[in-house]
Amino acid sequence: MANPPACPGFKFAGILAGIKATQRPDLALLVAEADVPAAAVFTQNRVRAAPVELSEKRVASGLARAIIINSGNANACTGPRGVEDAQAMGHYAAKAIGCDEKRVLVASTGVIGQPLPIERIVEATPRLVAAARADGLEDFTRAIMTTDRFEKRALALVPLGPKTRARVVGVAKGAGMIAPNMATTLVFVTTDAAVSKSFLRKALQEEVEVFNQISVDGDTSTNDSLFLMASGAAKNKPIEGGDKGLAFRQALREVLADLGRQIVRDGEGATHVVTIEVLGAVSAADADRVARRIGASPLVKTAIFGADPNWGRILAAIGNAGVEIVPSKIDVAIGEIEICRGGMGVGGQAEHAAHEVMRRGEYIIRVHLHGGRGEGRHVTCDLTVDYVKLNADYRS
Amino acid sequence: MANPPACPGFKFAGILAGIKATQRPDLALLVAEADVPAAAVFTQNRVRAAPVELSEKRVASGLARAIIINSGNANACTGPRGVEDAQAMGHYAAKAIGCDEKRVLVASTGVIGQPLPIERIVEATPRLVAAARADGLEDFTRAIMTTDRFEKRALALVPLGPKTRARVVGVAKGAGMIAPNMATTLVFVTTDAAVSKSFLRKALQEEVEVFNQISVDGDTSTNDSLFLMASGAAKNKPIEGGDKGLAFRQALREVLADLGRQIVRDGEGATHVVTIEVLGAVSAADADRVARRIGASPLVKTAIFGADPNWGRILAAIGNAGVEIVPSKIDVAIGEIEICRGGMGVGGQAEHAAHEVMRRGEYIIRVHLHGGRGEGRHVTCDLTVDYVKLNADYRS
Fold first, then answer.
1. What confidence tier does B44 reach under pLDDT thresholds 50, 70, 90?
2. How many Å lie between the alpha carbon of B223 and the closest alpha carbon of chain A?
């Protein structure tokens, strides 16, 4: 008996095309039964890969039939040839599917600055399309991975009526070069709900915020893309807002938050996942800046690695956020342990207890600025010896 | 026979007061023969140590007699007690010197958030003042060190007439938490030139720019201070601008650039010092932003550690600088080897040659944006396994 479909209305595939040297799957496809509402957000890096430019142009129509993705090569900084290669990926996928190539989106991830082995991709494409199955999500997820240690998937349900629920299914890849700004890494979210083109775009643009609250190393990639497609297989009246719209957005947010946390947990070399919560800022934007600055500080991140409750580094990072604060009002807690009150240390016993909290794999650092009602958060991981080793390897 | 004076008109001392657990010198003094012109710049971090607040207030007069410095404890995030302790340091130093306490500046460096062992400092102060000698600069330099592996000193000469030259002598400490913004770490510069109060301040404010072009880890400390005092022992007509002013500024700039480079070379765990030069930006400010962003990228810094000519990471960092660029115009060279031309890789042979350059301890990464005439630079070091180990040590 076949497994149940991952998301009704979509088929998925992942195969080995020979792009990676490691003999791991590296070509993936997501295809709907017809052209369906689609939305996407892309990297804010000024250096953008060829597939990002192509997909951004095509998704502006609000419709898509399929996405073809390769891993092992980012097709970034590859000049005019890179543009041709991205177009060719879309062209041959459309030919094998039997659809308009303008409805095929393209994504790539991997090493920057090497020409794509396009012949291998073109050759493998008919096999890829033939492999697409309703229960092929696992193959798909594996084929988009690069330095990822584990697969990242998330599911949320959208109540549509007393007996009907639509699904929101997301998969992502990403472990390094993570500091999303509007979008991150490669993320693919599908839903079987019927959603209007314009509401789908709006929902994505607003809910992607939760994805911007994560970082591994503060670097943003040239290829970050987040795609969302709605098959309508649930046969509901297309969602355009209202209660159903809220329920859909909540499910989307849940999936994105879940995938973001999975990406941080898979952060290159990471041994701890820490959520930084900032309360009492003048505004939410200020709170976000403070949370992000703490999460980006190499000194804080190495202290997290060493389970060192070095709250002085946290205060120094807060002071560097470029936000109005009153140092003598700041409280800091690690897990349930307050270690800094009114800008001063609570004492050795509290630090010892905080050290115990920090030995856990996952915990919260809570900062209260006592300056207003703005709240923000950021999810980050530690900076470890393995992060440095992993990224210092000379490639050739 | 005594050594020649380090900088006529000044005496220096460095002794062991028992602040550090390591039995290393930790209390230092710099004292002029009378109140002399003085200027200073301080950390832009919003969380500022008590001695920073005190010294900033006092140096506003443009005059100072002495600076007392302790290492091993930053007296930061120490509340009202920290303010009292900083005042006490100045008070007892003034008493031992026999001067107005308003003319004594105070600086501290070391761990954040622990109360200063003020009794030990007060007790040691008469001994410190008695130890001050014209050739005591070496003792002074050692007593301000924390995680520094070596002493940082620099000298430049100011031609004042056919036979007379004044000296500009600088010493600094710093190895981690380095990303200066108007000032950095602790830096003490003395000159025997006579310089007017207002010109001294102006010269410092403009020439400190060269100090802002360095980073180790992108964190800025709560205690960064840079002090400049002019004894006038050279007996020249006080410099207020003109040719002599230019010569003085040039000497000051030279000393600051030299000290900055020494701090990066002593960067925590650093094995490479890299100067990033950016040409062809729309403006100098844009060029500086790009250079700083490259120098701050963990992925670029780990590639430097691994001698990996991974120019794709450099392009990704440029794209993240928030500056208008045309990716297809960017050239990147490592040392004398061009590895990226027009936004695309030059090839494997060039990368191999660049890898050889990167095995040197010190080299230049040159980026040309071909978008204007703006130029900028940044001096940074690599992100190494030792940086992480050094900063992940649990303190207690």
1. confident
2. 10
Rounded (5°) CA angle B296-A108-A204: 80
First vs last C-alpha separation in chain A: 46
Which residue of A79, A112, A315 is in closest CB contact with B328? Answer: A79
Query: Do B302 and A383 count as a contact with CB atoms less than 8 A apart?
Result: no
Return the SS3 of B120.
helix
Residue A71 tokens read as 């891993």
Phi, psi (rounded to 5 degrees) for B262: -65, -35
Judge whether A212 and A179 are in contact, CB under 8 Å: no
Nearest to A233 by CA among A199, A186, A191, A269: A191
Q: For the domain with range A10-265, which CATH number is right: 3.30.1380.10, 2.30.30.60, 3.40.50.2300, 3.60.70.12?
A: 3.60.70.12
- Which residues from chain A sit within 8 angstroms of residue B328, using beta carbons? 79
CA dihedral A232, A235, A238, A243 (to 10 degrees): -110
Interhelix angle B311-319/B298-305, rounded to 10 degrees, is 160
* C-alpha gyration radius of chain B: 22
Interior angle at CA B82, CA B81 and CA B88, nearest 5: 90
Label the pairing between strands A10-15 and A27-42: antiparallel
Nearest-CA residue of chain A relative to B345?
A113
Contact flag B393-A306 (C-beta cutoff 8 Å): yes
pTM: 0.77
Amino acid at B210: V
Q: What is the ipTM of this complex?
A: 0.74
B119-176, pLDDT tens digit by residue?
999 999 999 999 999 999 999 999 998 878 888 889 998 988 888 889 999 988 887 6
List CB contacts (< 8 A) between A328 and chain B.
79
Number of H helices, E strands in chain A: 11, 15
pLDDT of the residue at B179: 54
With an 8 Å Cβ cutoff, are A77 and B345 in contact?
yes
3-state DSSP assignment of residue B314: helix
Centroid of chain to Cα B84: 27
Distance CA A323, CA B349 (A): 47
Q: What pLDDT score does B182 carry?
A: 37
Q: 3-class DSSP state for residue A281? A: strand
- Nearest one of A124, A119, A102 to A13, comparing CA atoms: A124
Nearest CA in chain B to A111: B312
List the catalytic residues of A.
184
The number of beta carbons lying within 10 Å of the beta carbon of residue A209 is 12
> For the domain bounded by A273-392, which CATH number is listed?
3.10.20.340
Domain map (residue ranges) of chain B: 10-265, 273-392
Task: Count helices and strands (H / E) in chain B.
Answer: 11, 15
Q: Distance (Å, rounded) from C-alpha B254 to C-alpha B243?
A: 17
